[in-house]
């Protein structure tokens, strides 16, 4: 063995191994160095805060009248119902974009423990969506409450209203994690986004057609419905699960899907 080969081998042995901190930093860089993240986050803020402000502006006078059959608290986070589409896209693209380009093989070569890659992606995606989601809900509250205040029905940022602000961030983080898990399962951007959006928006409403108590139960525990009370001071659906009960149900569903995605990630080829 030549002296050059010995030196190269020694250098490889002495090189620092990639730890979980390196994986976190890599996932952070990968998330923010693609234009789709910036566009999607911008859309999340515009839709979440902008639509809440617009809806409150358009309904403030009606909500203040005696004809109103809804609470102002049902509208103060209204835009977050649409902004959740952006959370689905962010969570999905964090996974499927790498499978689409083949870069996932590089990620697994740099961090052979695939579970660490999964965990690092989950922490980064959930952390970003929680912060952006909470900030967006607060912006929507400030804009929407301005018009509610003008009609004398403004809401103080306390109690259930304050809970709805960070609850919106928690819900978007959970939805991003759910989308990540589906992304690892199907490895295709369009398919993963379609599956999650269909589950949240379409199937979640269609199950209402199932008669009896079974239909009521399934409707309450669907991912898009379970945490509906968490993201609004007053839910549009009085039969919905309680705020933290519903969030617990949602997190149980997300955890089960993540466990399946984690197992498949470690057992099948990249």
Automatic annotation (TrEMBL):
Claim: Transferase is one of the keywords in the record: no
The organism's place on the tree of life at top rank: Bacteria
Keywords, sorted A to Z: Membrane, Transmembrane, Transmembrane helix
Transmembrane regions listed in the UniProt entry: 38-63, 75-95, 116-144, 164-186, 193-212, 243-265
Name of the protein described by the UniProt record: ABC transporter permease
Species this chain originates from: Aeromicrobium yanjiei
